[in-house]
Amino acid sequence: MSAEAQSGLTRRPRALARNTGIYLVTDTTQCGDRGVAAVAAAAVAGGVRTVQVREKHASAADFYALVLAVADAVGNRALVLVDDRVDLYLAARAAGARVHGVHVGQSDLPVSSVRSLVGPDAVVGLTANTPAHLDAVRALAPGTVDYLGAGVIHPTSTKPDHPAPLGVDGFRAFASAAPVPTVAIGGIGLSDLRGLRAAGASGAAVVSAICTAADPRRSAEELVAAWEG
């Protein structure tokens, strides 16, 4: 049996996406000269099992190249999701890259259309922040969305247009009402992880905590240990 088959990533990515633990969202600027692919590989070596490749300002060609580079660097050790760009996910998948799905926002393609495009086996995550968003998810066909990303937990410079912070208590109320597993995001640090897991988070997405760390692998190890502890 191949290492990839043993990992389960090709056989059950959607199941893995519903219990994500520490989840890296990449940021080209914060990764700096080390590069996104190298930081992602270090994070995965430290125990991160989901990497969302996010790039808000690059051309389609550069974003596509970045997705391929991250997928190659991560190999079969983690889920690789593409932020927003369903077309780039499909192109990377067609090229044979190990990519497993997409994460889309409220202003992107309707999530039901996303599911139709990516097929039944791909991971689909959706940003959601309000009761109205939850109502819309409940109205979808079962299996359309695998997980929600909810936040921000704290104010964060990585998303300057973020909604009002939820805090841990606000996240608890949101996650308890959500019909699918919910990942917390936004300004999350080590001290938040125990409370977020107790509040019902299926995972915690981080950007700066890994991308700006002097040692991304060590930072990932500490975050994973705090989450699992």
Automatic annotation (TrEMBL):
Record key words, sorted: Magnesium, Metal-binding, Thiamine biosynthesis, Transferase
Domain of life: Bacteria
Residues that coordinate or bind 2-[(2R,5Z)-2-carboxy-4-methylthiazol-5(2H)-ylidene]ethyl phosphate: T156, S157, T158, G187, V207, S208
Keyword Translocase: no
Entry note: cofactor: Binds 1 Mg(2+) ion per subunit.
Limits of the Thiamine phosphate synthase/TenI domain: 22-210
Annotated binding of Mg(2+), by residue: D84, D108
PANTHER family for the chain: THIAMINE-PHOSPHATE PYROPHOSPHORYLASE, THIAMINE-PHOSPHATE SYNTHASE
Name this protein carries in UniProt: Thiamine-phosphate synthase
Species assigned in the record: Arthrobacter koreensis
